[in-house]
């Protein structure tokens, strides 16, 4: 049956806005709106994927456990999605909600399965597959109004492969990612979703001249850079001491790795804004300082 314009508008208006997905990461009232893109940029080991797990759990968890109850697509281009880790974080958060007397309907297993039912995982092994995946997403988006978030880990996974296959021609090197970006832009506009994508910083050789900001500069194609409305620059600090609750109710000092995030938001409707935040990672997921 053909969908009328009124039906389409009603369905799209019902798609969840994710401005409040994680207020501690973004400037005040500056979270990603409908149709906006957040890039998580940094070298390996700076907490980018852990942040994606944190955001994913926030979306699929029930409202009684502090979640948003929306569907999520995780596009895994690095084949690094750790489902055991994800389930562990979800389980910890559900247990925490139950310990605070939050009314979670159903057994532990039933609630966990309901959370996972809101997640669709897609694997890609090339930029061509990524393009096909984005075409496939249109069908999912049109049939699932609850699908509000697309996570891509990572958007830069095929950068070097595409460069090697295309030779010295920069337009050919960037051709597939440009097509992916064009299609993603249309999905953002037509279906009003929100996208978070990680991007690995390039490690430059010691022989190359560089400045302190070289590793922070985006190197992906210009269409992708224009699509990004929020940029989270992730880095790693020295380990710090934290006081934690130990067995028997006692407290003890433990050293934990601390990660920092510098957020730059520059959506078209507002002036550029900034925010700095820090977090650490535990068995229960990300903890903000």
Automatic annotation (TrEMBL):
GO terms, biological process: DNA strand invasion; double-strand break repair via homologous recombination
Top-rank lineage group of the source organism: Eukaryota
InterPro entries xref list: P-loop_NTPase, Rad51_C, RecA_ATP-bd, XRCC2
SUPFAM superfamilies, alphabetized: P-loop containing nucleoside triphosphate hydrolases (SSF52540)
Ranges of residues in domain RecA family profile: 10-201
MF GO annotations: ATP binding; ATP-dependent DNA damage sensor activity; four-way junction DNA binding
Transmembrane segments: none
Any Pfam family the entry gives: Rad51
Gene Ontology cellular-component annotations: centrosome; Rad51B-Rad51C-Rad51D-XRCC2 complex; replication fork
Name by which UniProt lists this protein: DNA repair protein XRCC2 X-ray repair cross-complementing protein 2
Organism: Channa argus
């Amino acid at each position: 049956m053909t969908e009328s314009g009124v039906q389409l508008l009603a369905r799209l208006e019902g798609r969840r806005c994710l401005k409040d997905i994680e207020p501690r990461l973004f400037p005040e009232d500056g979270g990603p709106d409908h149709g906006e893109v957040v890039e998580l940029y940094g070298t390996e080991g700076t907490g980018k994927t852990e942040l994606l797990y944190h955001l994913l759990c926030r979306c699929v968890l029930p409202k009684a456990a502090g979640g948003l109850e929306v569907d999520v697509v995780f596009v895994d281009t690095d084949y690094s999605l750790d489902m055991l880790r994800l389930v562990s974080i979800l389980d910890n958060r559900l247990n925490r909600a139950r310990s605070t007397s939050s009314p979670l309907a159903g057994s532990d297993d039933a609630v966990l399965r309901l959370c996972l039912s809101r997640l669709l995982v897609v694997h890609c092994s090339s930029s061509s597959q990524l393009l096909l995946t984005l075409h496939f997403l249109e069908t999912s988006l049109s049939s699932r109004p609850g699908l509000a978030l697309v996570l891509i880990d990572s958007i830069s996974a095929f950068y070097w492969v595409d460069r090697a296959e295309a030779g010295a021609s920069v337009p050919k090197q960037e051709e597939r990612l440009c097509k992916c970006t064009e299609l993603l832009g249309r999905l953002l506009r037509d279906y009003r979703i929100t996208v978070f994508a990680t991007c690995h910083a390039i490690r430059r050789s010691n022989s190359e001249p560089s400045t302190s900001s070289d590793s922070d500069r985006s190197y992906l194609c210009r269409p992708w850079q224009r699509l990004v409305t929020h940029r989270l620059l992730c880095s790693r600090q020295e380990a710090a001491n934290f006081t934690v609750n130990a067995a028997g109710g006692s407290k003890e000092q433990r050293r934990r790795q601390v990660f920092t995030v510098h957020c730059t938001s520059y959506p078209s409707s507002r002036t550029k804004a900034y925010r700095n935040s820090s977090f650490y990672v535990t068995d229960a997921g990300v903890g903000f300082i």
